[in-house]
Amino acid sequence: MNTPRSQKTSPQVPPAAYDELCDFLHQSGSPLTPAEAIASAIKLWIAKSREDAAPVRGYQWKQLFLPDGTRLRVRSGDIWQGADVIGDDLIFRGEAVSPNQMVQQTCGDARNAWLELWIRFPGEKNWTKAAQLRARQNALTAKAPMTPADAMAAAAKAMSAALSTALTLVEHANHQSQNTLERRLPRYRRAHDELDDIH
């Protein structure tokens, strides 16, 4: 059963944290009271938590994620043609396209989009070639530690390879021992062995 809001007790702020807050407010010359600062911090924390919980929108280009607000451009002659990531789409000339389609419409079919496109992420000032961003992403992925699922899959693959090798070795050993046994047996049986079979 939920307690009504009017009956809920306010949690106590640890004394050391409260003293630190009071010192900060005094030193910074803030007009806020400690209670107002605490209320403001709680509101900011809730807003940030909600923002973090919201799904991130953007366009996934192979291994490269382009968040909402990313700009792309390609040079055609002396003119730069631009596109924007809006929501989950790459919008070029008013239509949702892929990076490859954008380059084809601007430069022709024989161009590689990774080499032709330049990208500027939200909040950044500089443009970076798409191929450089992809190379960085690949390097980060290669350095990233294995997830437990990846580690289990790698272990299973190694065990399977080891088992296959072991079975091959056993089969080879059996074949070798069979050949050795056949070489040791006489080509023809002795005469008294044949006589024993008759009786």
Description:
By secondary structure, the chain is an alpha+beta fold. The chain has 3 domains: 17-53; 59-143; 147-184. Helices cover 53% and strands 17% of the residues. It contains 7 helices and 8 strands, in the order ααββββββααββααα. The protein has helices at residues 15-28, 34-53, 99-107, 113-116, 130-143, 148-184, 191-198; strands at 58-61, 64-67, 71-76, 79-86, 89-92, 95-97, 118-120, 128-129. The strands form 2 sheets. Strands 6-5-4-3-7-8 form a 6-stranded antiparallel sheet. Strands 1-2 form a two-stranded antiparallel ribbon. A hairpin with a 2-residue loop joins strand 1 and strand 2.
Instruction: Average the pLDDT over all residues and give the rounded result.
Output: 80
| Total separate domains | 3
Helix content: 40-55%
Number of helices: 7
Give the quaternary arrangement of the chains: single chain
Unreliable spans: none
Compute the number of strand runs: 8
List its traits.
single chain; 199 residues; alpha+beta; 3 domains; two-stranded antiparallel sheet; 7 helices; 8 strands; 53% helix; 17% strand
Task: Itemize the secondary structure elements and their pairings.
Layout: H1 15-28, H2 34-53, E1 58-61, E2 64-67, E3 71-76, E4 79-86, E5 89-92, E6 95-97, H3 99-107, H4 113-116, E7 118-120, E8 128-129, H5 130-143, H6 148-184, H7 191-198
In short:
This protein is 53% helix and 17% strand. The chain is α+β, with helices and mostly antiparallel strands.
